[in-house]
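Notebook entry, structure prediction.
Reason for the run: the old model in the group folder had no record of what sequence produced it. Starting over properly, with the input documented here first.
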Amino acid sequence: METIKIKLENLEDATNKYNQELLSEELNNYITQNCHIHPKERIEIKINGLTKKEEQEKIKKLIHYHYQNKVKQLNKIDKYDDYFRLILLLLGIILIIISEQFTSLLSELFLIAGWVVVWEMVYDILFTGMKRKRDLKLMKKLAICEITFIEKM
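New structure, fully documented this time:
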């Protein structure tokens, strides 16, 4: 189990300074940067400093809600990204086929444009898509992580 330790002086340290219903970006960055999770590992967050029961419940809900929203957002991006990849692939193939119909300079331009579009799709699958899938796995684990409160770290 991966454990992330957080020390909070008060609830305001964990919330966005403009909207108390949102997790602060600074805390979000700290949590995500300290997750070095393996696929089967669970995540536990240990928070020190909040003693009131209502503050503890609020921070639990805030953290889980934040990462559940991230999961929804990444799922939505993946859904539309698949459509975009299909369109790029078709466009690249069409440009390559069009290049066969011309001779000289126009043929070369369509061929290059077709392969650039196909490469962009492959790049998106190999690099951007894989990173997003890894982030999605992490956000899912954070959305259901165990949060405990301790007296001293």
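Summary: DSSP finds three helices and three strands in the chain.
The old model has been moved to the deprecated folder.
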